[in-house]
């Protein structure tokens, strides 16, 4: 596939449904945030289109238009696509791992728990970029959809638990859509089981609702801690789906958004919330 410049994009309404929850919101997040990249089988009148951000890919269109190795640029990505794209993925990669996913939608308002003594939960501001950057390397995924810690801190769409000037936990809008905001959270391993993630998530959910949007939450079916946190925070299961982790490309191309620091290291197949 070839990369498209923003001014080469076709009208997106025919490719992606507006107002979708979960990872599908990244099709709206990319043009709004300026992060991520667009790909197509050809620039004029594309027949197959892809959008990638933070190690996730959405594929749409006619897979028959793709060359055998066209999808090799999406090595080490989580791909969500109609079933018709599976032969094209199989032709491009020697390994495709399906991950069963669960999509939750926020339905039950929950009061934020009181943070422990000495901990403050508040909205992130641009000056917090350095504190976000100081998180452990395995936390880099949490701000990847904003292009890094400065992007998330400046977005106004993140909440964090602070101990003095140190970020102990953070929750943020990961993919910002026009109706849904898919959220993510991370807690420093040394501060888990203190309900810090719940405090950040509930504050964020109230913030999202105040914008007239609905929070959504996606995680691996096997990630019981993430599922429990979602339920406790007022999310309820909407549906289940499968996405595919790609690897061993038949012919390597430049990886567009390779997730070098990804929560899959903590929870295989999970891109949203490591164990807390």
Automatic annotation (TrEMBL):
Occurrences of domain N-acetyltransferase (ranges): 119-251
Protein name per UniProt: GNAT family N-acetyltransferase
InterPro entries: Acyl_CoA_acyltransferase, GNAT_acetyltra_YdfB-like, GNAT_dom
Pfam families: GNAT_acetyltran
Region Disordered, residue ranges: 248-276
PROSITE patterns: GNAT
